[in-house]
Every structure is written in structure tokens, then in C-alpha cells.
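Hi R.,

Here's the chain you asked about this morning:
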Amino acid sequence: MYLLVLVHVLQSSVLAVHSCPALCSCSYGNSGTAELRLVQCSDPELLVVPVNVPSNTVKLRLEKTSISRVPRAAFYNLSELQFLWLAYNSITSVHPSSFVNLKALRELRLDGNLLTSFPWEGLRDMPQLQTLGLHNNRLSSLPAHAALFLPNITYLDLSSNRLTILPAELLDLWFPLPEQQGAPTRRRVLGLHDNPWLCDCQISMVMSLSMSLWSPVVLMDQLLMCSRSLGQSGMLLTQAELSRCMRPSVQPAATRVVSPLGSNVILRCDATGYPTPTLTWIKTSAYPDCCQQNIVESSEQLPRNLESFMQESPRVGVRWSIISLNGLSYRDAGEYRCQARNMGGISEALIKLRVVGVTRLSRPPKKTPKSQKTPPKSSPKYRKPNQNPVTINTPWMKENQILQNITPPSIKKTQTAPDPLSGVNPPRYKEEEPG
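And the predicted structure, written out as C-alpha cells:
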């Protein structure tokens, strides 16, 4: 009995590797020394994604079928798959987990379907993906979070959809600022034509930057049309319209600020751009180069958006913002970023705040002008009539020394009890009876 079960399992495994799905054709090809398998299914009677595709398939083409949806884990057994073409079917939905385990996939094409949305987060399951084709669908919007999953995509075709606005996050991905370029910028090919774009700064910036020398982006078709508002007829983007759009630029009042513990400080930054950018403050790190030994590690989560700040726009294209920090503590020390954002992109400036402790210094003795010097508080009983007054700073010690020099022979010193305030034995004098 167990032997029969084992034989059945082995037969199923062999079929999974070598069998070909119904309504499909399978073939082999050579690429160097590696043997490739191609599976192609183009029968209009095919209604669902076949589940018995050989596991060693490298290229799968499901085209011109009646498939309407791509279910969860539809290609889970195809870990060697490198090319997946699902073009010109009737697909209306793709599950976010449809592409699980496609770790070797390099090319995904969904052109010519009926998609109104795409699960961008599903790109995480295809870390090697470089080509994504979504031409001729019904996509009406691109979410901002799509930029998080597109860093590795070098060929993206969004042409012939219903897109109207490009999120600024995509511009930051495609056209990074020089200070944001950690590694060499990848050259990308984009298809954006044949969409009802609105004439705004995003699409204008893409057009302008793609035409510059050494641009990291190449447009498949540079004849982009846009309209002033939805429903209006489109027009070609012109250079005059492009000149009005300006990516934001941020200038802080100071990049390094040092302030005493307990003091108040104001951080300020100014931004320019068109449309007029909005400003936000973000604390990105704490205690740079100081203060760790003075405080217990803070539990605040960083980076953290700051809410208590003020911003004003004195005129179009200009905005400034300040954030006030009162009664500084060591926890206020750290790095603050002033971030400017408009339809043309995002820019930011870094400000480092250092908080230093204050040591209380003793006040030096107040100097008295020579013209206001006062005579010593010695008893007038023992002062000579014509003696000039003497300034004495230490009451007992200096007075004792002076009186020693001026004591007449008829006066004899005697010791008395110590002064209760100074602890010094003051001299006391009495006159001797004439002998």
C-alpha cells in the first residue's frame, strides 16, 4: 500500500516537471549551456490560469485568452520563471499576492487588459523585476506609495491609460537631487504618452528634465498632451508652460545652533519654488556629539514629525517657517530637517542643535571708584586728629597691622575674647595709669 502511494507521488512530480497544460504548447530553447522551457497558452477558451505549468518553466505566455483574474499565489511553483507575459487577456483584477515566490522574475507584462488598479505592493515578491508593462489598461491614478516599490524598475510602460496626475514621490525617484544620490543613478525608460494628463508641474517637470543632457529618464514618446482641466481638449506641453514650474529649494537661517540648557531657541528656514511649497519640520536624530552622558536614553521614536511650528507666505513662490523650542533640555538636542514640498518635488535642509550645560560663576567683588573710597570704621577715640583715613578691605587683620604702626608708647595691647562673627582675636587697648 505504501509503495503504491510513493509511486503515485513520484508520478505526480514527474508530470509536474515534464507535462504540458491543456490548451497550451511547450517547447525548449537554448541559452548558452542552459536549457530553457517556454510555455505558451493562447486559446480563447482558457478561462483560468493553469495550475499544472511545469516547475522548470522559464518563460510563460498567457495571451489572448479569456482569463479575467489572477488569483493568490497563481505562480507559486514557478520559482525559476524569468518572463511572465499576461498580455491582451480580459484581466480586471490582480491579487496583491499573485506573484509570491517569483524571486527570479525579470519581466512582467500586463498590456492590453482591463485593469483599473494595480497592486504595487506585490512588486516586493519580485526583487529581480526590471521590466513592467501596463500599456493600454484603464488605470486612472498612481498612488504615492507606488514609488516605494519601483526602485529596481528600469522599464515602465504606463502609456494609453487614464492617468491625470503624477505624484511628486515618483519625480523624486526618477530625478533624485544630487545630495540624495547614494549610488550611480539608473537610467530608466518611461512610457507616459496617450494619457489625459492635467497641465501641472509634475508632468511638466518630467518633460523638462527628460530633455536635459545626461537625464536619467528617457521617454518613449516626448509628445505629451495635457489639458487645463478635466474634460477639456488636450494641448502639447510648451516650453513657456514648463518655465513656470520650479522645484522647491530650502535655505536654513543656520545649519548649526549651540544654545545653553534652559534657554529658548528659534529655528528658521526659507523655501522658494512654484507652486509655493509647503514646509514641515522633522526631528530625525537625537544628541549629536554631546549629551549622552548627561541624560537617560529617550524612548521617543525618530524620525518624528513636529506639529508646533509656524509658516507664512509673504508672496507667491516664497514661504518661511519657524519652530520655537522653549526651556531647552538635552532631549531637544539633535538633527532637525526642514522639508519643502510642492508639485515639482521635495527638498530639505538639515539643522543641528546642540545643547550645552551652564556653570554658575561667582561674581567678582565690585570695585569702588577712588573718588568714593570711605574711611575705615575704626573708633574715633584712637584716631589721631590729622591722620588721613585708610581704606581697609579685611576688617580685623589689616586694621591690626595698621594700628601696630600707629600705637603710641603709652598704649599697651591686651588680648580679649575672639569676635563671634569673624573668629579672629581682635586687639583691644587700654591706657596705663601714669606711674
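Residues 2-18 form the longest helix (17 residues).

Let me know if you need anything else.
M.
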